[in-house]
Amino acid sequence: MRQVVKLAAFLMLLAGAAGAVLAVSHNLTQPRIARQLASEKQGALALVLPQATAFSDRTAATAAVRRRAEFADVREVWVGRAGGRDVGRAYLVAPVGYGGPVETLVGVAGGGRVVAVRVVSASRETPGLGLLVKEQAFLGQFSGQPAGVRFSVVTRRPGAPGEVQAVTGATISSRAVVRAVNVALDLEAALEGAGAAREAGAAGAAGAAGAVAGGGGG
After folding, report:
1. Do residues 115 and 107 touch, judged by C-beta distance below 8 A?
2. What is the pLDDT of residues 9-27, one digit of tens each?
3. Residues near 25 by Cβ (< 8 Å), separated by ≥ 6?
4. Which of 42, 195, 215, 218 matches a 20 to 30 Å C-alpha distance to 66?
5. Taking the model in full, what pTM does it have?
């Protein structure tokens, strides 16, 4: 009986020591992993908005507009800046593809023009088929399209603005990326509209205040 108690105590001590080692290891590696992920995110942002020299996270600031149901797949919103001015926004959108979310980063410049698109994660899509949506041969179709165009998937050679040829055998994954781009463009338009409304409201308030001040002087 005494031997059993000793063995149990030893196993408890061993388990505690192992837990402590894992905790220390986690605390040591977590900051490094976080820095690596942040670096990868900045690299991806630079690819979809290459004219930007700095990026700021505007996800929280756009929450009022993003709460609409059509923007449920939007995970992050970033603003790219260069020379002290905004040069575009980048949207991380994750619609569901064939096997799971297809995290897509969409760079949009003024007027609703797609600069570039990158799929940052599609780990559950079929290797050799769905994963091909990450290749430039597919993603390059979004760049150079007219501003404000609506994208759609076709299974033949594209013949009109906004048409994107699906990856052979991966139509569902292709549609997920197209949906991500369209959602990003819709959110861009909504944010631009909200900004214009705020500016109009501010101008109206300033004009009213000026009219009151002028009337008081008479």
Report:
1. yes
2. 666 776 565 555 455 444 5
3. none
4. 42
5. 0.74
